[in-house]
Model the fold of this input.
Amino acid sequence: MPLSKNIRQRKNELRTVYKRLRANCPKDVKRELDRKLTEKFLSLDEYKKCRTLFAFVSTPIEVDTSEIIETALKDGKRLAVPKCIDKTGLMDFYYINSTDCLKKGAFSIMEPDEEICEKVTDFSDGLCLVPGLCFDYQGYRLGFGKGYYDRFLEKFGGISVGICYSRCIEKELPKGIFDKNADILVTDKFINYISQCIR
Done:
C-alpha cells in the first residue's frame, strides 16, 4: 500500500476520533476550556503587538473564537476572516469591523459579506489563528481534509498560531509534503513556541 494512502487513511481515522471527542464534550466543560484558551491566546506578546489578526469564525465543535474576535475589534486590530472559494481549496480573507459583516457561507460557516467588506491583498505580516481538529507538538494540524489552511499558510508571511484543546494533542501526526505547521501552539494548558525565529 503506498505511503500516501496510509497517511490518508490514518488522518481519516483520527478525524473520526476527534470529531466524536469534540461533539461529546459537555457544554460547560467546553465553555471553560474556551475561556482558558482565549485567555492564553490574548496573553501572547505576538497578539498584543500585531496590527492585523487573521482569525476564523468558529463552528460548534471548534475552539470558540467569538471572544477573541470581539477583543481584537475593541483593541483596534485590523481583523480579517476567511471566505472559502467553493471547491477550489482556496480562501480569501476580508476585513471586518463588526460581526454584523458576516453571513452564512460555504459549509454553513459564517463568512464575511464580500459586498460590504474589503478584500485583503497583503499577507506579508500579521498574526494568523489556525484551526484544527487536533495538532501535534511540532505544530502540524489535522483539519477537516479540505486543505484550505495549508494552501493559505504557503503564502502567508506573518506568524501562525494553532489553537486547540490539550486533550486533542497528538505526539506526532501523519503528514504529507504539503502540510504546514504553525509557529506557535496554544492550548488550554500550555503555549508551545515551535518556530525559534520569533522568540
